[in-house]
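Reading is simple: each integer encodes one residue's backbone shape. An example follows:

___
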Amino acid sequence: MKHLSETLKEKTLHVLAAHAQQYIDDQWKPVWDRHLEETERIFAKGGDSAYGFYCLKLFQPLAAEIVEAGLVTRPVLPGTFPQSEEHWGPWENRERRFWSVIQQENGKAIGTLITRFFHDHTRLRLPRQPHVYAIHETDPAEISHILIHADPSVLDSRTDGEA
């Protein structure tokens, strides 16, 4: 039988992932539209850095909300470019996976949020909204292995509490 603290950590992680996904569902398009002019300027000068700008705009309010709830993300949501992986999909519907470990205020890690970010390398376009998944692993090597090898259906099942 699991200890109550483990059960609470799992519930917290999955509630957080569900909340993050609901936020993205509601905000990904309005944030894109609101910042499109500036994103287009950045894309014209620096290509894919425009998607990084968009991610900052999309995730900053969510990151602030997580901090307000007494949790810490390391690195900041959705994660950092050097730790991310991009191996999936055609150039016009490319997927990059980011990750961020979630910690309690006392520094104890409760799990990791993985963000799948879909983008177009042929023009400035988001083919679909980002997806957020929760996993229990917090070791960077294990997270990297999951990022590279897990197919989306495995990530889906892990988010549903089967991790």
